[in-house]
Amino acid sequence: MSIKILFMGTPDFAARVLKRLAKTEHEIIGAVSQPDKPKGRGHKIVPTEVKTAAADLGIDVFEPQTLKDGAFLTELKRLDPDMIVVAAYGKILPEYIIDYPKYGCINVHASLLPKYRGAAPIQRAIMNGEKKTGVSIMRMDNGLDTGDIVSMAETEIGEYETAGELFDRLAVIGGELLCGAIETIIDGSAIYKKQNDAAHTYAAMIDRDTARIDWTRSSVEISKLICGMNPAPAAQTTYKGAGVKIYEAEKTDASGKPGEILGVVKRKGILVACGSGALYLKTVQFAGSKRMNAEDYARGHEVETGVQLGG
Predict the structure, then answer these.
(1) Cis bond upstream, residue 94 (ω within 30)
(2) How many CB atoms lie within 10 A of CB 239?
(3) DSSP letters for 52-108
(4) Which domains does the chain have, with CATH numbers?
(5) What is the pLDDT of residue 271?
(6) pLDDT tens across 143-184, in order?
(7) CA angle 304–310–311, rounded 5-degree value
(8) Is the pLDDT confidence value at 96 over 80?
(9) DSSP E strands: which ranges in 130-225?
(10) Alpha-carbon distance 157 to 23, whole Å?
């Protein structure tokens, strides 16, 4: 049975889910995304990934400045969705939206709930060294990712898998899982499982402070931070006071003062000591330079052994 679905989402993860949903028999009657925002040094206004995807699919796009105080109610009644699907929309939905559709408000969340509720489940799972994560499809309620679980799928996290790579994989998993869950909800066979609130963890939003490397930490912890911050905002440190972004590193056994550059190793990169262990920095972006292989950067620029990063 075909139903009318209103989609709500903003970033690339959501756009990929939308594209998969659009391949079903259901009618996507609109896509709600956050308003365009300025990005980059030039502060150019850039549409969200969901807006771009929806336009390519011929789906009407709505960009309300706010959903509060019934601001979207008139449009919601006009669209009259049977179900609302939410994937990384970026704002808490008010009760009048959650309670409106016949088949409920269904959320695609990139974690194994109740772990990593909140804004940055993928990055936080990697940063915390989790061996596995996944996607949960839940029926939304008034809490923050607290609704009953409809279905769940898990996947292992690679040792050096980046947030960007995991985003891509989970978007595919989430799209498939969502489509299956929708059918069980429509035909009444869905089994709703309450979350164990006592076991929940929270995935706070990522900012530049999150990305700053503390070289007194172990090479394992710093490696996971670097993976979790790739591609954005990228793990951050300094070299002689100037900013450096680190996108890729490899763990090794070496010792020195935390953050100390121990040398440049052929076919490996810039060797830096951590609180325990060390890292070969493999892909970097020094101030005034582009993102590049660390060894290539060192060939054309002085990388002084003995200097402590982050000092």
Answers:
(1) no
(2) 21
(3) HHHHHHT--EE--S--GGGTTHHHHHHH--SEEEEES-SSPPPHHHHTSSTT-EEEE
(4) 4-203 (3.40.50.170), 208-300 (3.10.25.10)
(5) 98
(6) 999 999 999 999 999 999 999 999 999 999 999 999 999 999
(7) 80
(8) yes
(9) 132-139, 148-156, 202-203
(10) 28
